[in-house]
Design brief:
Protein name: Carboxyphosphonoenolpyruvate phosphonomutase
Number of strands: 10
Shape: globular
Radius of gyration: 24 Å
Number of helices: 13
Number of domains: 3
CATH class of the largest domain: Alpha Beta
Organism: Penicillium chermesinum
CATH architecture of the largest domain: Alpha-Beta Barrel
CATH topology of the largest domain: TIM Barrel
Strand order of the largest sheet: 3-4-5-6-7-8-9-10
Largest sheet: 8 strands, parallel, barrel
Family: Belongs to the isocitrate lyase/PEP mutase superfamily.
Order of helices and strands: EEHEHEHHEHEHEHHEHEHEHHH
Catalytic activity: (2S,3R)-3-hydroxybutane-1,2,3-tricarboxylate = pyruvate + succinate
GO molecular function, one term: methylisocitrate lyase activity
CATH superfamily of the largest domain: Phosphoenolpyruvate-binding domains
Structural class: alpha/beta
């Protein structure tokens, strides 16, 4: 999107007796509001910062991340499956579930923090991968990761994972790359491998190098079992940027954002950063309601506070500026 801003230049005189100079055309300042994908790509290309993405799974969790000023967000597949379907992360959420949720989150503020979204296996063969990528692009998603698990997949931090052969994995990456190029999109293609459990570290590096050769922008080796392994992967694939998925109490030992930055990771996602605390908070409140007859919400945290996090003030301003009278008496 391009916005032309006219800057009015004041008239001036050398002397009150002199004639006014010829009018000077007002200069035009062109401001380009870059799509989310372009902004994410620029962060990767022009900075060396660690892009920290809290895992969000619905509008409220995304609004909280925005309120706190995170520069990017991650839509977790596990959280989407749990919140939208009430099911475990076992490959049950499909393209419609994931794309619809990602589109809502990414467009709460189209020029807010870019959203990286889980795309699982791409939901089928090359044609389905292509369709999935196109729909994510149209949804204003800034980046996505696609993996090499079989279609009957599961959370990357569960045991018993199985992956497809290298040729099929390459086919998924190739289909994704061809689609984003055909649509002239800056969406960031993140190649993920879950082969560590089944085939070991060397096979993971082989697969990620193959994905890199096909044009993937970022790599993701899921489920590191040691910090040394994570550090080595950065070295083995340098200078290609890597993403670290930090699932506390999952397969990977705890790695802080500071450690990840020192290791050389470029993006760090926290898949369960909102869904697990939400479970704890909701369960605690429901237990108190069951046992004491009240929820026990802290004083001052009423409906208006939640609505303010969810854009109440912006909605009021739009209505008033448009000539509406819905908020003349406040809320």
């Amino acid at each position: 999107m391009t916005i032309a801003v006219q800057a009015q230049q004041k008239d001036f005189f050398h002397d009150v007796t002199e004639l006014q100079p010829e009018p000077v055309p007002a200069p035009t300042l062109t401001v380009q509001l870059k799509p989310a994908a372009s902004r994410l790509r620029r962060m990767l290309r022009e900075t060396d910062e660690l892009i920290i993405c809290p895992g969000v799974y619905d509008g409220l969790s995304a609004r909280v991340a925005m309120e706190l000023g995170f520069k990017a967000m991650y839509m977790t597949g596990a959280g989407t499956t749990a919140s939208r379907l009430g099911m475990a992360d076992l490959g049950l959420a499909q393209l419609h579930d994931m794309k619809t949720n990602a589109e809502m989150i990414a467009n709460l503020d189209p020029y807010g923090p870019p959203l990286i979204a889980d795309m699982d296996t791409g939901y089928g063969g090359p044609l389905m991968v292509s369709k999935s990528v196109q729909q994510y692009i149209q949804a204003n998603v800034a980046g996505f990761h696609i993996e090499d698990q079989i279609q009957n997949k599961r959370c990357g931090h569960l045991a018993g994972k199985k992956v497809v052969g290298l040729e099929e994995y390459e086919m998924r990456i190739r289909a994704a790359k061809l689609t984003k190029d055909r649509l002239n999109s800056d969406i960031v293609l993140i190649a993920r491998t879950d082969a560590l459990q089944q085939h070991g570290y060397d096979e993971c590096i082989k697969r990620l190098k193959a994905a890199r050769a096909l044009g993937a922008d970022v790599g993701l080796l899921e489920g590191f079992t040691t910090k040394e392994q994570a550090r080595q992967a950065v070295k083995d694939l340098a200078p290609w940027p890597l993403l670290l998925n930090m699932v506390e109490n999952g397969a990977t030992p705890l790695i802080t954002t500071k450690e990840a930055h020192e290791m050389g990771f470029r993006i760090m996602i926290f898949s369960f950063a909102s869904i697990t605390p939400a479970y704890l908070g909701i369960r605690s409140a429901f237990e108190r309601l069951k046992n004491e007859g009240i929820v026990g919400i802290p004083e001052g945290l009423g409906p208006r506070k939640i609505f303010e996090v969810c854009g109440l003030t912006d909605s009021m301003n739009i209505d008033t500026a448009s000539g509406g009278d819905g908020f003349l008496e406040g809320v």
